[in-house]
Specification:
Distance between the termini: 74 Å
Largest sheet: 18 strands, antiparallel
Strand content: 15-25%
Helix content: 25-40%
Structural class: alpha+beta
Oligomer: single chain
Number of helices: 24
């Protein structure tokens, strides 16, 4: 202690001298001394910003502040239920333990993961950790080098049986930048007198580690840093889309980037090569037609098979063979020749179909953004996910990727919360451009109408009319030029909270369940949606709606229409079956007349969504002007995301320590000129509950396996007792030890099921029970069997089952 205090005093004195002496030394004129050449700065190694070329990888991920993130509540609170309830594999537990132990070393480091390569000579997956200095990287390198083999062990080579002795050569190699231990390589003679590949040599590890400057690399194969960004290639840091996305998410913890433009380009180039090869084969086949005899009986396997048979074989092989792993086909490699299938060539990029799924939509052409940037961050009590779609400056952007026919209108301040009820479980609003949607949908509907098999249109007649021509004729107006201009840009939808009346009706209509005394069926009322459509001319719309109702097939409905006014609101109902209302500048429509009435009553009583403090508080983070907005109330969040998790004492214990109040889930869509930004806020405790419920189910899978083994063990005991009674027992049943000694049951049967097997024999009767060794972990149900052979089960909290329990089917 005195030494430490003295050291601190000396250090403080030195710092004080430096601080006070610095101004004095700065004012003194230095003595004339011979000039020395300035020391050269050490060569700067590669960094994240200068490591990759723009066309090296298509997927990029960056995690900032790895050490701090590992110890942050955002990560630890999610890992807790996974580790305690889910029983993950030992490898995951080892990784978590190792990261926690090295969190301080990782400190402010950054982690980069790049995948889906576009070049052939680069690793399939590149993982790199960047430290503040090369010295820190050198210190971390041996720590990682010693840990990785525990996760990715080197495969043991299989020696060739019967190999004859051969000369040996001792070789000292260098692996992973570290001198390797000498190993023996056998040199086998070949027929040509040369040397064959070595046998029984140590197998190479399934990974490659290296260190360059402040970076530590972990890849699936060896590589050169220069191959990641060849000369004259465009750096990734200069790519416009990457720069925009990375700058937009500069402060988030996790950043992801997907280069969809390169993916689409590679797909198009590969398909073009396939088309060219198909044409070449067809031209060669036309120039050199095969004789009929040869066509019937091919003499060589290189002759062209029948396209139809190849297509059938391809389908059969697709059904039998598993899906390939996401592998990239080299664009410079020519496609295989010699065979031709009439089926279209498969996609060269396995996994590319997810793009069609996300951006293909329902009908219409596929619309891809050029790139997608995404970010994950923990803010307040919410996990925030942000997605930025970059469409380029030469084409219009698509606000919702999986709906290419949808077109957003101008940004607006949502007014629909001022007319919809405060008890809405779900609220969705969006700005809509009806004219653009009409122009996008019309060609698709025209094509679908022309493909209608019931159409009797003559082939020589003029092109068919618009699919809306019939409705326009009945309305006496054009939809695009007359009706759509009457509507505003905002469209909202709300799902109202079920009333007690609807819940009671749902319970009465629910069918009773026969699943057993411990399983119940919960009836959930299905509410109807309520739509709020902004309008520009209320009087004009009021005149059009009756005509529209009759044009849709409800002739004479106007005779049953009744109008009721409540303040500024007006309700039009049709015999209590259907109703719509006008509230301010909104048209309210619902399939249920009672829901329309609820909306009007809430508005009159000033119980709208905008007066709901919870809605205001949890949407406050959103911009004032948005293109879209979603609000999911806590009740609906719990109902559709959590469900009814299986009970368990560990799960119940975990849930008891959590905040039982679930916050709402919110979302917004904006466009700040860079691209469309989708932002989702998920409550922390909601995500914890989801992870806990899922982890609990995963943790129960071993328990279910143990329960099945326990059932099998008791059935084995019953069979063994019957055999023992008929043979060695002379009419009596045997104990557990006697059955084992007679080899009627295995010795380790009781220990391998996670259950305790107990057997009691009393004269001409016996009973065997199986009880979980660790209730809730190794199993929950207890089992019972006796001389009757009926297997019974029950949940006794770890106690033994009895003859009064329910029999198993």
């Amino acid at each position: 202690m005195p030494t430490t205090k003295n050291f601190r005093r000396v250090l403080a004195t030195l710092l004080a001298l430096i601080i006070f002496a610095a101004p004095v030394l700065a004012q003194r004129r230095p003595a004339a001394t011979p000039k020395r050449p300035a020391p050269q700065a050490p060569e700067k190694g590669p960094s994240f910003d200068s490591l990759l070329a723009a066309d090296t990888y298509k997927v990029y991920c960056e995690v900032r502040g790895v050490g701090g993130l590992v110890h942050s509540p955002a990560v630890t609170d999610l890992l807790e239920p996974l580790l305690k309830l889910g029983k993950p594999p030992k490898e995951i537990q080892s990784v978590v333990k190792w990261l926690n132990a090295h969190a301080d070393v990782l400190g402010g480091s950054r982690l980069m993961i790049a995948g889906w390569p576009s070049r052939q000579n680069v690793p399939t997956v590149l993982l790199a950790v960047e430290f503040a200095s090369a010295e820190d990287a050198k210190k971390f390198y041996p720590e990682l080098r010693d840990f990785i083999p525990t996760l990715l062990p080197t495969p043991t080579p299989t020696p060739t049986p019967g190999a004859s002795p051969s000369p040996s050569l001792t070789v000292v190699g260098v692996r992973n930048n570290e001198p390797a231990a000498p190993y023996e390589v056998k040199v086998l003679p070949t027929q040509e007198g040369g040397a064959a590949p070595a046998e029984n040599a140590p197998a190479a590890p399934p990974y490659y580690m290296s260190q360059a400057g402040s970076l530590v690399f972990l890849t699936d194969k060896a590589f050169k840093v220069g191959d990641l960004k060849p000369k004259n290639s465009k750096p990734l840091e200069e790519d416009q889309n990457f720069t925009l996305a990375r700058s937009r998410f500069a402060s988030e913890s996790v950043f992801l980037y997907f280069d969809l433009k390169s993916i689409q380009k590679e797909e198009e180039e590969q398909r073009a090569k396939w088309d060219e090869e198909r044409k070449r084969i067809e031209e060669e086949a036309a120039k050199n037609p095969q004789p009929e005899e040869t066509a019937e009986m091919p003499e060589s396997s290189e002759e062209l098979p029948d396209p139809g048979s190849m297509e059938d074989e391809a389908r059969a092989s697709d059904e039998e063979m598993p899906s390939p792993s996401p592998e990239i086909v080299d664009p410079n490699e020519p496609p295989p020749t010699g065979t031709l299938s009439s089926a279209p060539p498969p996609s060269p990029v396995a996994g590319f179909n997810w793009l069609n799924l996300l951006f293909g939509g329902v009908g219409g052409p596929t619309v891809y953004p050029e790139a997608i940037g995404a970010a994950l961050v923990f803010e307040g009590d919410s996990y925030v996910a942000r997605v930025l779609t970059l469409d380029g400056s030469d084409k219009p952007g698509n606000s919702i990727p999986f709906l290419p026919q949808f077109a957003s209108g101008p940004a607006l301040v949502p007014a629909s919360p001022g007319v919809l009820p405060a008890d809405a479980d779900l609220f969705v609003t969006a700005s809509v451009d009806y004219v653009q949607i009409y122009d996008r949908v019309l060609p698709i509907m025209s094509v679908m109408a022309s493909m209608n098999p019931d159409s009797t249109q003559p082939t020589n007649e003029k092109p068919p009319q618009s699919p809306f021509a019939e409705i326009e004729g009945k309305l006496g107006m054009k939809l695009r030029s007359d009706l759509l201009p009457l509507l505003g840009n905002e469209v909202a939808m709300a799902m109202l909270k079920p009333t007690k009346e609807t819940e009671d009706a749902a319970k009465r209509s629910a069918q009773p369940t026969t699943a057993g005394p411990q399983q119940t069926e919960t009836a959930v009322a299905s509410p109807n949606p309520v739509f709020a459509i902004s309008i520009k001319d209320r009087e004009a719309v009021a005149k059009v709606i009756p005509k529209l109702i009759e044009a849709l097939g409800l002739k004479g409905a106007s005779a049953f229409a009744q109008t009721e006014k409540r303040g500024s609101a007006e309700i039009v109902s049709y015999a209590g079956v259907f109703a719509y209302a006008f509230i301010d500048n909104f048209l309210i429509i619902s399939p249920d007349a009672k829901d329309t009435q609820r909306v009007v009553d809430a508005y009159v009583n000033n119980q709208t969504l905008s007066s709901n403090s919870q809605f205001r508080n949890f949407t406050r983070w959103q911009s004032r002007q948005v293109l879209g907005q979603v609000y999911v109330a806590p009740g609906l969040v719990e109902q559709y995301t959590l469900g009814n998790p299986a009970p368990g004492h560990k799960l119940n214990e975990f849930l008891s320590r959590m905040n039982p109040v679930i916050d709402p889930l919110t979302y917004s869509l904006t466009n700040d000129g860079v691209g469309h930004l989708h932002e989702l806020h998920v409550p922390k405790n909601l995500l914890q509950l989801i992870v806990a419920a899922a982890s609990s189910e995963l943790g129960e899978e071993p328990a279910r396996a143990n329960e099945a083994m326990a059932q099998s063990a008791l059935r084995t005991v019953f069979s063994a007792e019957a055999t023992f009674q008929a043979t060695e027992g002379n009419g009596s049943y045997g104990s557990l030890e006697q059955l084992i000694a007679a080899n009627f049951i295995p010795k380790d049967m009781a220990g391998r099921s996670g259950y305790r097997i107990e057997l009691t024999v009393a004269g001409s009767k016996f009973m065997a029970t199986a009880v979980p060794s660790d209730y809730g972990v190794s199993g929950k149900l207890s089992y019972f069997i006796d001389e009757t052979g009926v297997l019974r089960a029950g949940d006794h909290g770890g106690g033994a089952a009895t003859a009064s329990d329910q029999p198993l089917n």
